[in-house]
Amino acid sequence: SSPTEDDPFADMGLGDEDSTPPVVDDEDPFASMDMGEDSSSSTEDDPFADMGLGDEDSTPPVVDDEDPFASLEDLPISDSSEVDTTEDPFADNENLFDSFDSPGKDSISPVSDTDAFDDFGADLGDFDANTDSDIDTTDTLAGASLEDDLSSLAEGEPVEEDELSDEELAIIQQEIISYPPRLKRTIIDTITNDRVSNNDQRALLELIKARQKPAEVAEFLSTVLGRKVELYDSSGLYSEDGVQVIAKDEIYTKEGEFRRRQLIKKTVLGVAAGFLLIFGLFSSYKYVIKPYQASSKYEMGLEEIQKAWREPRNTKLRKEHLLEAERYFAKGEEIIPNNLEYLNKFGIAYMKIGEYDRAFEKLFGKIEPDLGSNNPEMAWNKREKIPLLSFSGYYSWDDDRLPIAGKKPENDKDPMRVLVDRSTIERRVLKAGAYLVAALEKKMYHNDTFINLARFHSNPARLFSKDGVKYKNDVLAVDYYQNVFTFGGDPDNIEATAGLGKIYYNQKDYGASLSYYDKIYEKFPNNPVGHEGLLSNYIEMWKNDHNPRFVMNHHRQVMNVLNVEDELSLFILSKLAGFYIDLNPSNIRIKYSLNPEDQVTGMDIDDVTNHLLNVAFTRTENRDGIKINGRNHAESYYQRGRFYLKRGESIRALKQFEYAASYDPAHYLAVLEMAEHYMRIGNTEESMNLLKNAAERYKRYHHYYGGRDEDETLINGEPGRIFFDIGKMIYMGSSSITEKDDLTAFPGRKVYPTRSLGELPNKDRDRRKEMKNAIAYFAKAEELKLKNPALLRELHYYKGWIEYMNSMTNEGFSEALKDWSRLEDDVYTNVNVIMGKANAYYYTGQLKAALGNYLKLKEDFEEKMGDIATPVPQDNRHQEVFQTLSAIYNNIGAIYERQGKFNLAMQHYWKAIETSRMISTASEIAMANKEMLFRKKIGGDGLPLLDDWLPPTLESVVEIQNIRKK
Question: Whole-angstrom Cα distance, residue 699 to residue 761?
C-alpha cells in the first residue's frame, strides 16, 4: 500500500514540491488540506480548508484594518442558530474556521515560513513584541508551533478522535459573540492554535454551551493554559470591539472620532451657552436685577413719606422722614434715572401728605422762569390747556445737564432750555419731572402722567386750596384728562373718565358727574368703577332729597344682576353700609313705596348692612401702589360701630370704634363716638380724655382731609361735635351751684344767677368760672360750622344760659336773648327757653313781653297741676310742676307790682306761697316780695325780687328720665 493509504497526513506538503498529493477521501477531516491547486475535494465542509500554506514567495492574504479575521470567509452556521451581525464584532468573519483555502502543490512552503499565519496571529491582538499579554505570540513562535504540529502529522503521529466538528465550532462562534473582547480573542487563539488538547477544547465547548459566565470560562482557560486569562484588554492596543489599534492617537479610532466630534459639539455648545449666559446675565442685570435694586430704593422712599404723614406739620421728625425719602429717591435715581413710574408715585405720595411743591416737581418738573412769571394768564391756576414743550435751539435731552441723584450737573453744564407753547421765552430745566421726561426725553404722551397731573390740579384736599392755591385748577385738570382720550390714544380710558366724573362730584354737580360714570357703565357694565361713581352720586343726592330709590335700585342691580358687588371699593362698600344705617325702614315703605326687603335675597335693611360690611372685611385692594386690607380698613369698622349703636349694642359698638381709631390716626369720629359713649354712662374723666384725643387728631390731620376717599366721612362728620361735647362737659360740671348738686332733679335744677347767690366757697366760685371756658368751646364748634340741629339747639341754649347767669348789666341779658332767639321752635314750646326769655325781658325793662311769656307758662302749668290729684314731694315731676308754677306766680306779681297793680301783685305772691306749700316747700322770694309790698304801701321803695332760677338743660325732668331709659 502507498503511504497515503496508511498515513492520513502523508500528503501534508513536506515532500517534493512537484509531487501531487492524492485525492483525499471524504472521510478524512483534513483531506481538504490538499496542497494541489486542482484538488477535486470540496472545501465547503472543512473549516480549515482555506488554511493553505502557499509558496513562501506568495503574498499573504490582506487583513482587514478593523477585524483580524476579515479574510476568513463564510463560516458555516447551524441552521438552528442565526447570528446577529449587529452585535458581533466579527460579523464579517462568518466562516472563521472555514477560511483556510487548500493550497496547490506548487504553493507548498515550509510551515515556519508561512506568512499567512504570521499575519493571522498579528491580527488576533496581543502580537506586539513589547506587550506583556499572556496570549501574545510572535510570528516565529506561531510558525514554529504549526510546523511542529504538521511535522508530527507527517511523521504519522496518532490523531485525536474527539476533535471539534464544524457544528461545534459554529456553536462556539455564536456563543462567544457577547463575551468580552479579550476573552473572545483568547478563546479563538486557543482553538485555532491548538494551545490546549482536544479534550480541553471540548471541555471549553461544554462550558460555552452551558452558557457559563465569562469569568468562569476565563478561570477554566487560566487553569488549562497555566496563566491568568483576562476578560478585558488593559494594554490599550485594542478597541472595545476587539479591533487592533494601529495608531496610538485616539483621533484615528472610532472612539476618538466620536469623542472628537463630541468635544467639538460640546465646545460649540459651550461657546453658545457662554454667549447665552453672558447675554442672560447682562439682560438679567439690566432688566431684572437693576430695576429691582432701583425699585427697592424707591419703595423705601415711599415708606418714609407715609411715616412723614403721621407726624405733625413743621416738626423735626416729619422733616427727617421727608429728607430720608429724598435720599432713597436719589439712590434709586442713581441706578435708573428718570423712571416715569416712580416719578408719578412719588408725586402722588407727596400730594397726599400736603407737600405740594415736592409733588409738582416729581409730576411735572421744575423750569425757570416758571409759568405765569411773565404772563399771569399762563400761571398754573389760570391756564386752561396743558403746556406744549419743545427744545430751544440746539439743545437736546442730556442727563449731564440735570442734578440727577442729588449731584450737580457735570462740569457745571448749562441747563437745557425749552420753549413752552408758542412763547419765545427760553426756560431752563432745573429738575426732571414725569411730564418733562415723557415729552422731551421719551418723546411720548404718557397717559399715567396726564392722569396724575389732572388729579394733582383737581385735588379736593382742604390744604390744597390754601397752600396749593397756585396749582388748584379744575379746568386744567379737565384738559389733562381730555388729552388721555386724544393724544394718549385711549378714548375709552376708564380712569380718565372717572376722573372727570370725580371733578364734578367734588363740585357737587352731581348731574354732570353721573353722565361720566354712566359712560363707563354703558361701555363696561361689569367694571366696578362706573358703579362706584353712580352709587356715590346717588347717595349724595339722597342726602338732599331723602329719596333712597336710586341708591337701593342700583345697588340691588349690582348685587343681584351683575354680581360685581364684591368688586366694589372698600370706601363704597362702607359708604353704602352707612346709607342703610341711616335709613328708616318704615319711612321708605310708607313715603316712597319701597320694599325694605330685597325680594331676591330676602335680606332686610339690617341684613344688607351687615352683608356689605362682611364683604368689605374680606376685600383687599391696591390704591396708588399701597395694599389696603379690608380687615384693617378703619372706615368699615366705624360704620359697623354705628350699626351696633343703632341696634342698642353699645359695648360691641365701642369695640368697633376702638378698631377704627387704631387703624386710622386721622379718624377723629371713631374716638368721638367712644367719648360720647362714656358721656352717656357718666364717666366724665374717660370721656374728657377721649374728647381731647379726638380734638388732637382733628387738629393734626384736618388739613389733609380730601386726599383719600374715606376723608369724605371725616369732612361730613362735623368736627364741631368735638368742641361742643367738650364745652358741654365743662358746662355741666360748672353750672350747678355746688359740686354735689344733681342737675337732673330738684332742688339741684333750681340754679340762680351768680348775682343772686351771694358769697360762695372758693372751690364752687372757681368751678363756676369754668363756664366762660365752655363759651369758648361753643364758639369753636360754631366756627367749624356745626350743623346737627339737635346739637345746635343745645349750644344756643347753653350759651344764652351762661350769659344770663353771669350778667350784671342789661348787655348780658341782651346777649342771652340773642342766643335764645335762634331757637326758632323752642321759643314757643320749650318751658325753660320761655322762662329764661321772660326773665331777661324783665331785667331789660320789657315788662309786657315778659308778662306775655309768663302768662303763657301760667296756663300750661295750671293745667298740669290740675292733672295731679295728690302732689308727692319725692316725685321730681311734681316738684318741677309746682316749683315752676310758684316762680311764675311770683314773677307775674313782680311785673304787676312794677306796673302799680298792687292788688294783682299781692294775689300772685300769695298763689306762689300756697303752691310751694302744696309740695312741702317754701317760696321765700314770694314771701319777701309780699313783705316789701306792704312796706311800699306805707312809703317804702325798691324793685320786687324775681324768682329767676333757670334749669341748665332744655329737657324737662320727664324727658331726662326717658332718655336715661333708652
Answer: 37
